[in-house]
Specification:
This protein is α/β, with parallel strands linked by helices. It is about 40% helix and about 20% strand. It has a 6-stranded parallel beta sheet with strand order 3-2-1-4-5-6. It starts with a strand and ends in a 5-residue tail after the last strand.
């Protein structure tokens, strides 16, 4: 049976443009049994919300702003949440707001054993994010829902190569955390499943989301780490450590694989360089005794570099035989 979830939206701090991504994302966690939105519906600011409420069966809760500068919506939403907590059998709450005033509410709901999913814009303060079991940035949901598959692929490549500035936790820190998880399990003679990695990263960082790093799947994200490898057995995916190979060997294997799989045309040195730096962030060709990247790539067995007048291409010569 799916978890039952109450969706409570702070209309004063969230735009109506996010409603479809919010509902789509929340459907992954269970059935939405309550859909309520709080705001002053006499205010022109909330006009955009009025148009989508009926379409999505969301119940509007009127809350007048009694005092200028004070957000009365917060109090109404908090009171309703506590009423629902004590009168309904729910497994979770989804609080949609970019306001830190709901931090205490999120903590209180979790103390009562409820799963708390937070959603808000990227400006949402850290305390509210940390108070939730899971926190999702609405801009990421909107971006993911409005792009077709081709756009998503292009966006993912661009995001990986530019290393988005909105990323809160460095990839290197994520890698260290996953390595620690695997080593703890190894001490207990247990394998580390992909699902466990995902759930434990969320416990460490409630706002962790692979979409921040330009990936749609956790598995694809973890594959970019040089110290990790994934093993699939049927539907089971395990995350493991590369223990018996040096960093240099891993880099060379990766580079050769990129060139081999590029086909007869090969891969441009610019693209290859970006991929290497994305996977091995501190890669420097000087560390391997070469002054130029081109010379380093030419040192690989069965690899040649061709110049088409505009750029250099690395080609695996055995593909041509």
């Amino acid at each position: 049976m799916d978890d039952r979830i109450a969706l409570l939206i702070d209309a004063d701090n969230v735009s109506a443009k996010y409603i479809k991504p919010i509902l789509d994302e929340l459907s992954k966690y269970g059935n939405i049994t309550y859909k309520r939105i709080y705001g002053d519906w006499t205010s022109p600011y909330n006009q955009s919300w009025k148009e989508v409420l009926l379409q999505n069966s969301i119940t509007p809760i009127q809350q007048f702003s009694y005092t200028y500068g004070k957000n009365a919506t917060d109090s109404a939403m908090i009171i309703d949440a506590m009423d629902i907590l004590y009168t309904s059998e729910l497994e979770g709450f989804c609080l949609v707001s970019s306001d830190s005033d709901f931090t205490k509410l999120a903590s209180r709901l979790r103390e009562s054993g409820k799963n708390v999913i937070g959603m808000g814009e990227d400006k949402t303060p850290i305390p509210f994010r940390k108070a939730c079991d899971i926190f999702t940035v609405l801009e990421l949901l909107l971006e993911d829902s409005t792009m077709d598959n081709g756009e998503k692929a292009a966006s993912s490549v661009a995001a990986r190569e530019t290393k988005r500035t909105s990323v809160g936790v460095a990839k290197s820190q994520i890698e260290e955390d996953v390595v620690k998880i695997i080593m703890e399990n190894q001490n207990d003679d247990r394998e580390t499943g992909l699902g466990e990695v995902g759930s434990r990263l969320l416990k460490l960082y409630p706002d962790f989301d692979v979409r921040r790093y330009g990936y749609s799947l956790l598995s694809k994200f973890l594959e970019t780490f040089p110290r990790l490898k994934l093993k699939q057995d049927g539907t089971k995916v395990s995350v493991m450590l590369y223990e018996d190979k040096s960093r240099k060997e891993l880099q060379e294997e990766y580079i050769l694989h990129q060139i081999k799989t590029a086909g007869k045309q090969g891969v441009s040195l610019g693209t290859l360089g970006n991929r290497i730096r994305n996977k091995f962030g501190d890669f420097k060709v000087h560390d391997y005794g070469y002054s130029q990247f081109k010379s380093y790539i030419q040192s690989f067995k069965d690899v040649k570099v061709e110049d088409d007048g505009e750029q250099n291409w690395a080609i695996y010569t055995k593909n041509l035989e």
